[in-house]
Design goal:
glycosyltransferase activity, Rossmann fold, glycosyltransferase, 4 domains, seven-stranded parallel sheet, transferase, YkvP/CgeB_Glyco_trans-like, alpha/beta
């Protein structure tokens, strides 16, 4: 097969070139002559790679059948070739959010995503990590990098110096963490290799062998890829690990290193600096840690898996082109939904359950765990929120600390095989439940479970297509938004159930506090409609906004005569149930399913954009009516809409999969 690609990333192209195809590599599709067809200083061109000029590419690409496949590494590649009748595949190396932030254009994300979605309608997409696919919100395969450790090795660490590698790291500081590197390495011996003309004393690699020599001889490698804009690893980290070089990394949800075992993962500059100095002063420790890092690279980034997945992606790209199917129609996740029966029936009464989610307090997973523990035996597994995520998600007002799980993991995405090794003896689970939190993907290796698996998906109104793909790996799926069940069914998923969100009376329950203001609102101010509605209310009454969580949020509700709620996409959100539980009057817009549970003017008050001010003023002038509605809403929430009731539904549904052992 003759494949055309473009030299945006020579090292990555050299890995793809390990496939048994002929590759012609053209300069990238940007208006510059600085980037050629291949960079010999980074990698020698393999025998099956032919660098060509831009004009040669333009002449050949228009010859019908000359190329069997076009592989792009930037949206510009697909835009340039959109009218060429040849199968295409696009690799996403960066996050859309990161590119928008680098260009100081965060407002373009939604429109640009729509443009790209249309552009790649007949193109098969490959993402180099789960976070990249999640950020772009497009269907496609996840192919994590592979590393051929046989090409590396020979670490000595004889030079007492830290190594860092990267191009344009200063201008891409929000991704690369350049300023953090400078803070960590101040007055310490270090070497920077890459194309960085704006950084004094930066060296440019003299070639592939020169780069490998730097990995072998320098004492340690420093990694500062910053969330949420970048993954916790890059090719430099993998190459250093494959050489046997120890890595000191900043904390990142997707960092592959286990702290203190095969590298160091640190929460900030101070801790990183301490670890760097420790390794600079202890060569034998560096050798020990680096050796285990090499084993990590073999286990988590095998080249064989990388090439197998690329073979599959190429075949699917051709299938998309030849059949006219949408890419999502041929995409299948690595662990497809298991259609199997279970030999072991579920025990009656109290269940043994494994619950998996990323730990931080104001999340559905936290409330579900609390409810499960009241009536069942539980083991929790997963990572926990980091300081970087707290900053990125604007959670600085969160006073409660994330707890450690019974089986803590370094990564937000849990590896089932690793988890099974850590389950305490004597704990025989009845089923496994993964709860979406927005951090990390679904567990890897679900096929290794011998008990039913379930997922609880909360934000399907935002990530519909991605959730449909995720669901194929589970035996049962619960979704918080009823409106999307038909889309799951159309995709061949029948074990999908509506499980609305709920309240936790111990956290969201009523407090005897004086009403201090007319309208209260807790939530994000990112929606133009939401802001406009609040501004209209504020013209006529006292409106207060607070960024609060957990009990502090509930107390704010209790001090509000009326609590305003606004759905993002017609979703029946957490706030509906939490406000009702607090005993304050809920003023909300319509959400799918709300009328199945609650009656307008009996349990809550439903507004539209035209009557919101009128409705709010009426109940401020008629406090007795408002109190009656709020009381009735609270009573119904406590009776039917607690997380304990939701857990009961989960258990009953899972029992039906296996039957009960009587």
């Amino acid at each position: 097969m003759r494949i055309l690609s473009f030299n945006w990333h020579t090292p990555y192209l050299s890995m793809i070139a390990m496939l048994d195809h002929e590759f012609e590599i053209a300069p990238p599709n940007i208006e510059t002559d600085l980037l050629g067809s291949w960079n010999e200083e980074m990698r020698p061109a393999p025998q099956n790679v032919t660098p060509i000029l831009r004009q040669q590419m333009q002449d050949r690409i228009r010859q019908p059948g000359y190329y069997d496949l076009i592989i792009g590494h930037n949206v510009k590649d697909i835009a340039m070739s959109k009218d060429i009748k040849t199968p295409k595949l696009l690799v996403f190396h960066n996050k859309l959010s990161a590119e928008a932030a680098l260009g100081n254009q965060p407002g373009i994300i939604d429109e640009y995503r729509k443009y790209v979605r249309q552009l790649v309608s007949g193109v098969y997409c490959v993402f180099i990590s789960k976070t990249k696919r999640s950020d772009w919100d497009l269907p496609g395969a996840i192919i994590m990098p592979g590393i051929d450790v046989s090409l590396y090795g020979g670490y000595t660490g004889q030079i007492r110096r830290a190594l860092r590698i990267g191009n344009s790291i200063k201008v891409r500081n929000l991704m690369t963490g350049y300023s953090l590197q400078e803070e960590v390495l101040a007055d310490l011996p270090s070497l920077l290799i890459g194309e960085n003309p704006d950084i004094p004393d930066c060296e440019v690699s003299k070639g592939w062998e020169d780069l490998k020599k730097a990995y072998r001889e320098n004492r340690l490698f420093i990694n500062t890829t910053i969330p949420p804009f970048e993954d916790g690893y890059n090719l430099g980290l993998l190459e250093a690990s494959a050489t046997g070089m120890p890595v000191v990394s900043v904390s990142n949800p997707t960092c592959p290193i286990t702290d203190g075992f095969d590298g160091y993962v640190c929460d900030g500059a101070k801790q990183m600096r301490e670890r760097v100095i420790e390794l600079l002063d202890n060569q034998s420790l560096a050798e020990e840690i680096g050796g285990r890092g090499g084993e990590m690279a073999i286990q988590k980034f095998p080249m064989e898996t990388f090439l197998e997945k690329w073979d599959s992606a190429i075949n699917k790209a051709i299938e998309v082109f030849s059949t006219g199917l949408a890419p999502s129609a041929v995409f299948q996740p690595s662990a497809d939904r298991r259609k199997k029966s279970f030999n072991k029936k579920m025990r009656t009464g109290r269940k043994n359950v494994i619950v998996c989610y990323t730990s931080y307090p104001p999340t559905t997973g936290y409330y579900i765990e609390r409810a499960f523990r009241k009536n069942h035996n539980l083991i929790t597994v997963g990572g926990k929120i980091t300081d970087y995520v707290i900053d990125a998600w604007n959670l600085s007002n969160l006073k409660e600390k994330a707890k450690d799980h019974d089986i803590p993991t370094a990564d937000f995405t849990v590896d089932i095989e690793d988890m099974l090794k850590k389950i305490p003896g004597g704990f025989d689970p009845d089923f496994f439940l993964w709860i979406e939190t927005g951090l990390g993907g679904p567990p890897e290796g679900l096929d290794k479970l011998d008990v039913p698996s379930a997922a609880y998906l909360v934000d399907t109104h935002i990530h519909t297509e991605r959730h449909i793909e995720i669901s194929k790996a589970f035996d049962s799926v619960f979704i918080a938004q009823r409106a999307y069940i038909s889309e799951f069914n159309s995709a061949g998923l029948d074990n999908v159930f509506w499980l609305p969100l709920a309240c936790d009376p111990e956290i969201h329950g009523k407090a005897d506090l004086k009403k201090e203001f007319d309208i209260g609102f807790v939530g994000s101010l990112t929606s133009d409609r939401r802001i406009a509605l609040l501004q209209r209310l504020a013209e006529k009454m006292d409106v207060r906004y607070h960024r609060a969580f957990m009990r502090e949020m509930t107390d704010f509700f209790c001090k509000s005569k009326i609590v305003f709620n606004n759905a993002i996409r017609n979703d029946l959100n957490m706030r509906v149930f939490e406000v009702l539980c607090s005993g304050s009057l809920l003023l909300t817009d319509f959400a799918d399913g709300i009328d199945e549970f609650f009656e307008d003017e009996k349990h809550l008050v439903i507004y539209n954009d035209e009557n919101i001010v009128e409705r709010a003023l009426y109940y401020l002038k008629h406090p007795d009516e408002a109190q009656t509605i709020a009381r009735q809403g609270r009573e119904l929430a406590l009776e039917k809409h607690t997380y304990e009731r939701r857990v009961d539904e989960i258990v009953k549904t899972m029992e039906r999969l296996t039957g009960l052992d009587n």
